[in-house]
Amino acid sequence: MVEIIRKGELPRPEDVPAGLRTAAAAALKITLREPRPAGFPLLFTSDLQLIEPAIAFLHEHSVQRAHTADTLRTYLEILYEWFEALEQSGIIWSEADVADLVAYRNRMLRQPSAHTGRAYSVRTINHRVRGVLRFYAWAVRNGWLHASPLLGRGSDFALARRHADRRPRIHGNDTDRNLFVLRQFENLPRPLTSAQARELLARLPPPYDLVARWQLYTGLRVSEVLRLTVNDVGQHDPARQCLPAPAHYVIDVMRKARKSGYVIASVSLLEETASYRQLHRQAWFQRTTRKGRTPDRQALFLNNRGLAVKKNTYQHVIHRTGQSCGFKATTHLLRATFACMMLARLEQLAKQGAAINPLLIVKVLLGHERLSTTDRYLRAITVDSCNLPEILESLLATEH
Question: Which residues of 147-156 are buried (b: 16+ CB within 10 A; e: fewer)?
Fold first, then answer.
């Protein structure tokens, strides 16, 4: 069975036997280029052989390319499941072929997940298959493999040819994706109604109710909203502003893949945030300090133990609270609700004569990356040329 062992820190000289203290002290002075940080995942086979290409792949995408911890965890899960399947079948990773990948995909179709006990969704299966193909393309490109049977199979299979599509492709013209990837239909977002959103917010305990409000009112992703710090919102405290206070504030945020961005936050949302900081956050911070623990000083959203709110915990609370309310609720639905409601209101303004592109504005507010050349041009002449905060001021003032 493939094992994941986290990289540990080097021991201090006083923590090892006397005969090893000199070596331990010397090891601490060694300077490494691009060292893997403590906690970095290492993949081992059942006989404790390091799976070097997988580690090199994770190292490049995490350390060298500075991807986020969520991206590293995603790649780790994909590689772990793939190498685990290969080991169970007695297949060497460099000799895996088309039949092996198809069998791996079909097994996910037939068997439920060992982690959740539920059937794999088509999205998850396609995501893992694409991850395996990406890994083998990287291995060939970086010299770990001279060639791979999983790449460039277009001439070996009689595939139905489709008419040329002049639209830009996200993943390029890749025959392997048509061969391995299942047909997938995009699920249209089903946003929460106003009554459902109010009931959900009323039942959520702090600080999760405030985190959900930030998602509903700004459209931030889970990772983005939990990355907010006290300094991000402290400088926009309405109580500290000169009168008359504005109805909205522009908050700089770090988007997905470490891109900079911003959101428009209403004064009412920031007032609720300031109240949370003075009451709940301050009380939890002081209690954690009294118990001799070190609270998180930077994170905006803390739990009752003084630690930063974790993504999985927050998602579980939203799901569980939605079940108690009698409807499905997820963190993605909160973001989708913001997008749908904002798009509907902006389309109303456009019908009234406002010179705006509603869909493009929503894409900007959501921090989406994939914009075509035309979209970038339209954003330059439509969004950047107008005062976006003024357009949204009336909308955000009525989010209740």
Answer: ebbbbebeee
